[in-house]
Design goal:
Blueprint (H helix, E strand, L loop, with lengths): L22 E6 L10 H14 L5 E5 L9 H11 L2 E5 L5 H13 L3 E6 L13 E4 L5 H24 L26 H28 L8 E8 L2 H10 L10 E3 L2 E6 L4 H10 L3 E9 L1
Parallel strand pairs: 1-2, 1-3, 3-4, 4-5
Antiparallel strand pairs: 6-8, 6-9, 7-8
Length: 292
């Protein structure tokens, strides 16, 4: 029996092609002057990226590019989701670029990160391999860069084609894979993304207030008990309650998750916590979960 066929980049069933049969490769990168680097500099970098890939095999375009006029944000999100592979240049840490990279990584689809040799690595994406290039675009070094980029694109697409569980980012975390397609009924992809970003903003605010209270607290009393306050209400309302608490009130270190507030301290302080929550319209259930 012959060995099973190993898919390559060219015959990946996931590789959506243009009318000429080429694989669409999206590019995320700065296009305007950034950190003293002119728009002409970024145009040169884009040309180098395009020169790296065989034009007979790949159609390389910015994810914001489209022949059809329309809402640019919607176009960007759709291309970030649909393009079989995306190259992202994080040089100069342009905020728009980092935002779009975050979306692509959330979709967990084949992504290649490049950067110049001056830009430091970012904490959040430092675990992902970056292909470096010289900021001054020296010819010989760029020849080597183009070769590495071409090889990386081909190998990445091949790996994605042969592994149904391929993951560029989310495999490092205990999270579910994103859906194979974006919902198209009531909400478009842009509305979905903005909704998720709103939830993320609330989660960050919640975590920051937790950190602030822990730092400003006075430590756990030796005779303290542990209580669980479980809320019914919106996350924003709970965050508002948490921020209203005086920083010097606590004799405890706190932790928060899933609308639950863990308080370790004096039992007489529970009535204060519940009263302040009730005054803001929050329903709260209190239970003791252990000793100090």
């Amino acid at each position: 029996m012959s060995a099973p066929h190993k898919k390559t980049a060219a015959d990946s069933h996931d590789a959506k092609a243009d009318e000429a049969g080429r694989i669409k490769c999206g590019v995320v990168m700065p296009i305007a002057e950034t950190e003293g680097l002119s728009a002409a500099h970024w145009a040169d970098v884009l040309d180098i990226i395009k020169e790296s890939l065989d034009p007979a095999t790949y159609e390389v375009e910015l994810v914001s590019a489209d022949d059809v006029s329309g809402i640019i944000h919607k176009r960007i999100v759709q291309n970030l989701f649909a393009n079989p592979i995306v190259i992202c240049d994080v040089s100069a840490r342009n905020p728009n670029v980092m935002f779009e990279l975050g979306l692509r990584l959330a979709f967990d689809k084949p992504t290649i990160i490049i950067k110049d040799n001056v830009t430091p690595y970012s904490f959040d994406t430092g675990s992902i391999e970056h292909i470096p290039y010289p900021r001054d675009l020296r010819f010989q070094k760029m020849v080597e860069f183009k070769q590495k980029l071409a090889e990386k694109v081909a190998k990445t697409l091949e790996a994605a084609a042969n592994d149904p569980q391929y993951s560029v980012f989310l495999k490092h975390f205990a999270v579910e894979r994103p859906p194979a397609s974006l919902p198209s009924e009531e909400r478009g992809p842009w509305e979905i993304v903005m909704s998720e970003l709103g939830q993320l903003r609330q989660d960050i605010a919640w975590a920051r207030t937790s950190e602030k209270r822990s730092v400003r607290g006075l430590g756990t009393p030796s005779n303290g008990k542990k209580f669980r306050l479980r809320f019914r209400g919106s996350l924003e309302e709970i965050v508002s309650w948490h921020e209203s608490l005086p920083g010097d009130f606590f004799g405890a270190v706190v932790s928060i998750s899933d609308k639950t507030f863990i308080y370790t301290g004096l039992e007489e302080n529970i009535s204060y916590l519940t009263a302040t929550a009730t005054s803001l319209g929050l329903a709260v259930n209190v239970s003791e979960i252990g000793g100090g």
